[in-house]
Structures are given as C-alpha cells and as structure tokens.
Amino acid sequence: DSMALLTVENLSIRFGGIVALDGVSFTVGEDDLVGLIGPNGAGKTTVFNVLSRLYTPHSGRITFAGQNLLAQRPAGIVRLGMARTFQNLQLFPSMTVLENVLVGAHTLGRSDIVSTAIGLPHVVKEEQRLHERATAVLELLHLQPYAYRVAGSLPYGIQKRGDIARALASRPKLLLLDEPAAGLNPAEVEELAELILGIRRFSGASILLVEHHMALVMRICRRIVVLDFGKKIAEGTPEEVQNDPAVIEAYLGEPVESY
Ligand code: ATP
Fold first, then answer.
1. pLDDT tens string 198-237
2. Which of 211, 215, 235, 239 is most solvent-facing, going by the fewest CB within 10 Å?
3. Which of 11, 36, 45, 209 most suits a substitution to test ligand 1, by most atoms within 8 Å of the C-beta?
4. DSSP strands (E only) in the chain
5. Which residues are CB-contacts of 60 (< 8 A; sequence separation ≥ 6)?
6. Sign of CA dihedral 60, 66, 68, 73
7. Distance from Cα 20 to the centre of ligand 1, integer Å
8. pLDDT score, position 115
9. Could you tell me which of 197, 216, 136, 142 has the C-alpha nearest to residue 171?
C-alpha cells in the first residue's frame, strides 16, 4: 500500500517469557481513523510504545511518512509527525491550558536560545505562528473557555481534552490516542466522538485509537485492528469486526450496543 502513512510489518516483542506482540502487521492511511482493540494485555499499549520508540521490537519493520521509524530516536518521532496521548495525563498541572498547548507547539519551533533571547524578528514571527497554532487547536477542541485556567484545577474530562490538544499542537500527521474515553461520563464520550471526527476532518491528522469503549470505536473508526495475546486476530470495518466470531469469542462477548 504505497499510500499508507504508517506501515507496520511483522512486529514482535517479548518481555521475559511474555510475547507481547507476535508478528503484528497493519497500516494506517492518510486521512484515516483506525481503531486498535482487544482484551486487557493484548498488546495495544505496547504497539504505541514501539511506535513512539520507547520500546525496540525484536523483529519487524515500521515505515512512517516514508521513513524507517526504527532508525529514529524517540525525540525524532515528533519531528517526523507523530504525537500521542498516554493513559495518564501528560499536562503540567500548574500551567494554564494555553501554556500546556504552547509547550506542545514548541516542539515545532526551530529558533535557538540566543535568537530567542535577543528577540530576532524571525523568532517573534515564529512565536506568533505557534500562538496561532495553539489558538486553532484550542478552538478545534472547544477549549477556548479554559485557555487561561490552570490545568490541574479543571474537571478530569476537560484535562483529557487538554491533553489531546497538547499532542495535536505539534501538528502531527498521525495522532495516537490511548484510551481517550476512559473515565469520561456518557455526555463527555458523546462529545469526544465529535471532537475526534473533527480532528480528523480539520487538522489533517490520521488517528490511531486504542479504546475499550466499543460503542465509540464502532461509531467513529473506518477500520479496526483486533489484537489478542499479541496476535492480530481480525481486521476490517466496524461491521465486519463486530460480526467476526473470533472477535466476539476473544473480546466482545456480546453484540455491541450503540448509544
Ligand atoms: P490494556 O487494555 O490493559 O491497557 P494492552 O492491550 O494495552 O492492555 P499491553 O499493556 O500492551 O496490553 O501489554 C501486553 C503484554 O505485555 C502484557 O502481558 C503486559 O504485562 C506485557 N508488558 C507490556 N509492557 C511490559 C514491560 N515493560 N515489561 C514487562 N511486560 C510488559
């Protein structure tokens, strides 16, 4: 698939005796929204940790935006255009939401410390650009009312949205979302579905979504990859995956109810 933004081929990684990933392959296209699901311990977070270069796999190839991802250092990943959220919030709690998002945007900046200190014109321009980027991201995630609020003082659902904004501020080609619905109430999950669809439509980022909230996954994903004990057991549209006996047996248990 020459149009794929991300191609994962035959990925395997062990921790001691545990085979966390066993020959996993999948792709994420440009402008795509792919779900990665499976029972606890299936290897979903491990996929994210390999993609962010926190873990080095024992075998496999990963091509991202035309580059060999495994040749990159973790710090190079954001520059290549990949950003992620974690299950635990990565916000600085004593900073405002806007400041947090600016931190995310600054990974884009090219100005060195000296030119920043003496306020060279190109630096001032760049600061303006990053500010504009941060403002656009806050708008996209409906966070303008909270821009000047200290992140740690806000309700959990708002902080989780702030965390997505932080990741999005680096202008990723691919956004990895790790359980964005966890801990949210039904109204917040409903809003999250719209926000994720909005991100895909308006930010230009493809999304890879790890999530246990099946109604959300089935509603918004174009394609779904299912892992079980480190192996890919199914891949397809939400419809195909929901009706796949192997997926029902390993994970879903019963038909998914919409909301
Ligand atoms: P959950 O839905 O519970 O988050 P998951 O699908 O994300 O599960 P992983 O966290 O990727 O699953 O874990 C896959 C397997 O690899 C598990 O057996 C886990 O214990 C193991 N594992 C993951 N990271 C490590 C590590 N750093 N050291 C040892 N074992 C690990």
1. 999 989 899 999 999 999 999 999 999 999 999 999 999 9
2. 239
3. 45
4. 4-15, 18-29, 33-37, 59-64, 67-68, 82-84, 174-178, 206-210, 223-228, 231-236
5. 8, 9, 10, 11, 12, 23, 24, 70
6. negative
7. 6
8. 57
9. 136
Q: pTM above the 0.85 mark? A: yes
Q: How far is the CA of 130 from the centre of ligand 1 (A)?
A: 36
Tally the C-alpha atoms within 13 A of residue 168's C-alpha that lie toward its C-beta. Answer: 29
CB-CB contact of 152 with 95 (8 Å): no
Tokens representing residue 77 in the block: 């990943």
Q: Is the CB–ligand 1 distance for residue 38 below 6 Å? A: yes
Instruction: Phi first, then psi: give them for residue 67, nearest 5 degrees.
Output: -110, 155
**Could you say which DSSP state residue 153 is in?**
G
Token representation of residue 235: 């891949």
Two tokens, residue 71: 């040749």
The predicted-structure confidence for 142-185, as pLDDT tens digits, reads as follows: 999 999 999 999 999 999 999 999 999 989 999 999 999 999 99
